[in-house]
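Following the same procedure, sequence and fold were stored together, as reproduced here.

>
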Amino acid sequence: MELRIAAIADYASLSSDQKLNIMGVFANLSAFATPVTHPQMYLVFQIDFDSAEAGQKDVKIVLQDDDGHEIMRMGGPIAIGRPQPGRTATYSQVVQFTGVTFPHFGTYEFSILINDRVEGRVPLTVTQVQPPTPAAPGV
């Protein structure tokens, strides 16, 4: 098993011919205050499996903060087909998240688990920015 791609993006899709389309990859969110809710993002990952790894797998995605507090968890089963000899079976996943709330500034991490083993991690930092100061009158 080899993780080929793992990213957070503004948008992603998987075409009918299994092409992975990713736009606006990011690793940082800026906010004036917390908690902050991000309206929409996509977690995208692609994993290669060799023929010995074919079969049913359990996939979980866990979002945690830097103290290990779980923000959310989701998952389910997938079926990996047996690839042709000398090739790998590629599994691509696009997960849309809507309205995820980050309770504080700091580092968060999406963990990608296959059969309860972490196969990939994607960090995301929520940083505080100062609101713009209003211009002085007459300037």
Notes: The radius of gyration is 18 Å. Strands lie at 2-14, 20-26, 28-31, 36-49, 55-65, 70-80, 89-102, 106-114, 117-128.
